[in-house]
Amino acid sequence: MQVAKKSGIQMDHGIAINSGAAASVKLGMSPYELVRELAASNAVVVFSMSGCCMCTVAKQLLRGLGVGPLVIELDQHANGPEIEAVLYEVCQDGQQPIPAVFVGGKFLGGVESLMACHINGSLVPLLKDAGALWL
To answer: How many CB atoms lie within 10 A of CB 106?
Structure first.
């Protein structure tokens, strides 16, 4: 938890980061490197805004499935605007970058993609493959 505080990563209530994942995030990383490293070292990462209702939907869906995602609240992060700019580049045209959900180191998409995967039954296998679920 100490490394997360030093790096400026704000945790969602009740979400802890394991020390192995936090240790790989270094101070002074570029926003692109930070996004890449967090996505690669955590089973599920959600880049969120604390007042965003769609972000809340994404986080609640994942928690309801038993997943404890690493949540980065960009409006509370020192490099939030720069990280958001990176997420705009990652998103396809017309897609909202927030919330941005990464599963198993890969960009899944926003709340629409997350819900579509949940409805079509592909979300749970993705989460299992990423090590976020042990069902």
So the answer is: 11
What is the rounded CA–CA span in Å between residue 61 and residue 51? 17
The edge-to-edge listing of strands for the beta sheet with 106-109 is: 70-73, 44-48, 100-103, 106-109
How many structural domains comprise the chain? Answer: 1
Task: State residue 135's pLDDT score.
Answer: 66
Q: Is residue 135 situated within a structural domain?
A: no
Whether 39 is in a domain gets the answer yes
How would DSSP label each residue in 7-68? Answer: HTPPPPTT----HHHHHT--TT--HHHHHHHHHHHSSEEEEE-TT-HHHHHHHHHHHHTT--
CATH number at residue 41: 3.40.30.10
At residue 72, what are phi and psi to the nearest 5 degrees? Answer: -110, 110
Give a yes or no: residue 20 inside a domain. yes
In this prediction, the residues of the chain whose per-residue pLDDT falls under 50 are 1-23
At 134 the pLDDT is 78
SS3 content of the chain, % helix, strand, coil (to 5): 50, 15, 40
- What is the number of other CB atoms lying within 10 angstroms of the CB of residue 77? 19
